[in-house]
């Protein structure tokens, strides 16, 4: 039997599908990829981050969007749904429906076994082409640990790691702090003496 060719979708077909359905998908180069559901830990961490940063940014010209806000990356054509996107100033959208963001200043992803390699690799490669993006955070969901990348505006990104419930992370682009004890509030983190190996950049 001859294998059927892959179906290629136009951007318009993809957006129609997203706007008429309940499931979220990524879009890249004509292909559509279904996004999987999230664990309890993932949802608790997401809620804690959005509440903490949203509270700190009240009365300021910045907005915190959770994972239902779609992001378009113009230089690569990827459409995706970051766990958290933050915009300061007037947000720029792809069209008048205002459901596809273009200019986040901070993006946060909560890692899972099925997405970690992608979030650290190809997805980060795409994010790095977004001119507005200044900081990218990767949040573990099974340990008190966050990897924090900062755009050096010279083609390089500086990585700092934060581990342990007493660690405090400063997000310079939005002048906010993230206490890991707050990020992981009510999340069942197993006690472990295992330490993360040093990362050589």
UniProtKB/TrEMBL annotation:
InterPro entries documented for this protein: Nuclease_put_TT1808, Restrct_endonuc-II-like, Uma2
Matches recorded under Pfam families: Uma2
Signal sequence coordinates: none
Putative restriction endonuclease domain sequence ranges: 11-167
Name recorded for this polypeptide: Putative restriction endonuclease domain-containing protein
Native source organism of the sequence: Kouleothrix aurantiaca
């Amino acid at each position: 039997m001859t294998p059927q060719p892959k179906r290629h979708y136009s951007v318009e077909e993809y957006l129609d599908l997203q706007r008429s359905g309940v499931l979220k998908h990524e879009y890249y180069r004509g292909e559509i990829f279904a996004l999987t559901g999230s664990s309890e830990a993932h949802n608790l961490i997401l809620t804690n981050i959005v509440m903490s940063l949203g509270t700190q940014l009240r009365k300021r010209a910045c907005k915190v969007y959770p994972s239902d806000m779609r992001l378009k990356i113009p230089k690569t054509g990827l459409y995706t749904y970051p766990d958290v996107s933050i915009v300061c100033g007037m947000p720029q959208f792809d069209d008048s429906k205002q459901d596809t963001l273009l200019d986040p200043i901070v993006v946060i992803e909560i890692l899972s076994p099925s997405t970690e390699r992608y979030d650290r690799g190809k997805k980060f490669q795409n994010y790095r082409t977004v001119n507005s993006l200044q900081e990218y955070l990767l949040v573990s969901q099974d340990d008190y640990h966050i990897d924090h990348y900062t755009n050096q505006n010279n083609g390089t990104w500086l990585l700092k790691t934060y581990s342990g419930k007493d660690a405090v992370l400063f997000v310079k682009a939005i002048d906010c702090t993230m206490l890991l004890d707050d990020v992981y509030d009510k999340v069942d983190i197993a006690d472990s003496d295992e330490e993360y190996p040093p990362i050589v950049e």
